[in-house]
Amino acid sequence: MKASVVQVPNILQSQSASDLFSFLREQKEWNLSFNKLGAHADISFSDYCGWSNEQKDTLNDIVWSQAGGEFQYFYKAIPIFDFCNFGGGQDKRFLSIFQLVNSQPFLSLMRSIVGDQSISFADVQATCFDRGHFLKVHDDDVLGKNRVAAYVINLTPNWDLDWGGVLHFYGRGKFAVKGLVPTFNAVNVFKVPQRHSVSYVTPFARESRYSITGWLRRGGRPGKP
């Protein structure tokens, strides 16, 4: 993998990509994820929708206060890997997504792109960046996770570059060396560790930024076979 990131267009059949976008768009139950004093935190998005404006503003203040000087993120996610690997009785279409990214054709393609035959499985989640969501600079290198590379399958048609939600990559300095606007049905693949971020989704964005994303990992898969 000579380039810092590789983008492969048309990773899925066109109808499959459209169906997957529609499936994610119709989901009501997501985790609203953020960093709480250095630890990952999830709250039910459906519960959040029932909060008062004052309660929502309080959470926003907490998230933005930490974001001002520390690592922070704020977006919606569905932990597909956990559902399928550890059970949970979720929609069978989640199992299809899990099986897709762990199929031999997909894993073989990823090994070829990354140039690493040690990749043995992929974890996976659905993500949704609504207006005001973001992911600050980080490198995905977590002790014990055995992450070789990351992948992002973009699933929002006709994303406007002015809406934000751009996947930025950084060198040693403070300036981005590459930025990828979400491109429908394209997969972005990049090695770990590598500094990157997802820029703030603007208040005037007309759509949410949907994707299937995860890490390509080596070693034995945790949980159920």
So, CATH architecture? Sandwich
Strand content is: 25-35%
CATH class: Mainly Beta
Overall number of structural domains = 1
Shape: globular
SSE series: EHEEHHEHHHEEEEEEEEE
* Unreliable stretches: none
The pLDDT mean sits at 94
Descriptive overview:
- The structure is a single chain.
- With 225 residues, the chain is α+β, with helices and mostly antiparallel strands.
- It has one domain (6-27, 79-218): Sandwich (Jelly Rolls).
- 27% of the residues lie in helices and 31% in strands.
- The chain has six helices and 13 strands.
- Strands 1, 2, 3, 4, 5, 6, 7, 8, 9, 10, 11, 12 and 13 form a 13-stranded antiparallel β-sheet that branches.
- Strand 2 (31-36) and strand 3 form a beta hairpin.
- Helix 4 (80-86) crosses helix 5 (92-101).
- It is globular.
- The model has no long low-confidence stretch (mean pLDDT 94).
Describe the structure using short key phrases.
Jelly Rolls, 225 residues, globular, alpha+beta
Quick structural overview:
This is 2OG-Fe(II) oxygenase family protein. With 225 residues, the protein is of the alpha+beta class.
List the helices and strands and how they pair.
Elements: E1 6-8, H1 14-25, E2 31-36, E3 39-44, H2 45-49, H3 53-67, E4 73-78, H4 80-86, H5 92-101, H6 104-114, E5 119-122, E6 125-129, E7 134-138, E8 147-154, E9 167-170, E10 176-180, E11 187-191, E12 196-198, E13 209-218
Antiparallel strand pairs: 1-11, 2-3, 2-4, 4-6, 4-7, 5-13, 6-13, 7-12, 8-11, 8-13, 9-10, 9-12
Helix pairs in contact: 4-5
